[in-house]
Amino acid sequence: MTSRLPKLVAFDLDYTLWDLWIDTHVDPPLRRVGNAVNEVRDRHDQRISFYRNVPEILHRLKEAGVTIAACSRTSAPDLARRALNLLLVPPPAGHKDQSPTPAVTFFDQMEIYPGSKIRHFKELHKKTGLPYSEMLFFDDEHRNKEVESLGVTFCLVPSGVDDRSFERGLDEWRKRHPVEVAEDASAGDTQ
Fold this sequence. Notes:
Largest sheet: 5 strands, parallel
Helix content: 10-25%
Distance between the termini: 25 Å
Radius of gyration: 17 Å
Shape: globular
Number of strands: 9
Structural class: alpha/beta
Strand content: 15-25%
Number of helices: 4
Order of helices and strands: EEEHEHEEEHEEH
């Protein structure tokens, strides 16, 4: 049996999925140069791309059927959405014959607007109906740990998301919610 995953995994954007603040380091318009994978440029040729492990993490979550959310308090929500629309995520490892996928298609929910992350998660809860205990949130800012008051598991990633920090977040969530969801082997036995 594989270890269970939360039903929803949310990510901040700035310095969590990419290495800049979209509202201060980037000047529109944004563009993708040709079919560049995991790279978008701004007016001054500033590069926007996901951290190295992010594409595989997104593929893993999507394949597992986990709801993926973007939760950002940026003051440039339209620019953040534009970047997600333009960024192409490479195909998963071992599937290089597949086409890259627009990053935005990985995100089932997007709460991208200024304000407290508490508000973002209340909206996620309202829209998805998922309990807060089934939510895991990755963010580079300690102040956003406030979401734990709702029951969300928070994982601080001061250097952005990578495989190690992602697994650390999953481990913490599993520690807090140790109940395995497994089908009872006899449940399908009607004899």
